[in-house]
Amino acid sequence: MLIGALEAGGTKMVCAIGKEDGTILEQISIPTTTPEETIPKLIGYFQDKEIEALGIGAFGPVDVNTESGTFGYILDSPKLAWRHKDLVGGLKKALGIPVGLDTDVNGSCLGEVTYGCAKGLDSVIYITIGTGVGVGVWVNGGLLHGMLHPEGGHIFLPRHLEDPDGGICPYHRNCLEGFASGPAIEARWGKKAVELVDMPEVWELESYYIAQALVDYILVLSPQKIILGGGVMHQEQLFPMIRAKVLEMLNGYINTEELGDMDNYIVPASLKDNQGIMGCIKLGLNALDASR
Ligand code: ADP
Ligand code: ZN
């Protein structure tokens, strides 16, 4: 059985055809311009592929509530051309198949839970640290939506004493995304993160902010595993720094088997940057199941 997968990002749309076991058979990328221009191209790609369902992991904020009149719409996104535009309706109508939708980060979390390092666990969080910061949450065996969906990239954090300028988030300034996204690193140090590998102070601040956020997520959501993905987390030296700081900040308040095995608790994404698109396959499969 073939399933369509669409990772709908603010700069590009990754479209793929895959199988139930998560195998990707083919994949293309289409630039994200306006909905009027982009959606017909997406339909054009998927329409003759004999897929039985489509799963979409979307940039947001996006309405993922299937009961809502604006299900599938992009909401108050900074991507103005997409604000209050329907991402899903046109695709669903043209393709005539079940369509599953969630946030891109919930999609990645689902990919890891279904096919990757979090298989079999019932509470997991997936955090991407890239152009923005997003958090996908799997709790008690399901993806968390609540009133909208989690926006865990924007939790407020205290500034590091040696961070002169604070954060760059236009909404909150000093939130995780404002402090720790790729653009935040670039704004603070005047160079792209990848060019700052040999400066320990860069990663000291970065791991301090990420660790604080993880402590908050651990205390509120009690995840059994925390997965860190996105471009910035390709800096693997961050992992031991983050693990040590998390334990230091928790200060012995929680003692679980998981926290006693930090190398397997705070981990990199395990699916070679395919966690998002593979999660979309599972979103498609879930939509197909729900339609039967
Ligand atoms: P996006 O978030 O746009 O989907 P990425 O997850 O690749 O895409 O994130 C892009 C951000 O990550 C950029 O700010 C870039 O500077 C940073 N980045 C990409 N690769 C690396 C790397 N190897 N090391 C550190 N930072 C990186
Ligand atoms: Zn913010």
Explain what this protein looks like in three dimensions.
The chain is about 35% helix and about 20% strand. The chain has helices spanning about 35-45, 90-95, 105-115, 175-180, 180-190, 200-220, 240-250, 275-290, and strands at about 1-10, 10-20, 25-30, 55-60, 100-105, 125-130, 135-140, 140-145, 225-230, 265-270. The strands form two sheets. Strands 3-2-1-4-5 form a five-stranded mixed β-sheet. A five-stranded mixed β-sheet has the order 8-7-6-9-10, sandwiched between helices.
Summarize the structure.
By secondary structure, this protein is α/β, with parallel strands linked by helices.
Helix content: 25-40%
Mean pLDDT: 97
Ligands present: adenosine-5'-diphosphate, zinc ion
Q: Termini separation (Å)?
A: 15 Å
**How do the helices and strands follow one another from N- to C-terminus?**
EEEHEHEHEEEHHHEHEH
Order the strands across the largest sheet as they lie in space: 3-2-1-4-5
Question: Residue ranges: pLDDT <50 for 5 or more in a row?
Answer: none
Strand content: 15-25%
Number of strands: 10
Q: Tally the helices: what do you get? A: 8
Outline, from the CA principal axes? Answer: globular
Largest sheet: 5 strands, mixed
Radius of gyration (Å): 19 Å
- Give the class from helix and strand content and strand pairing: alpha/beta
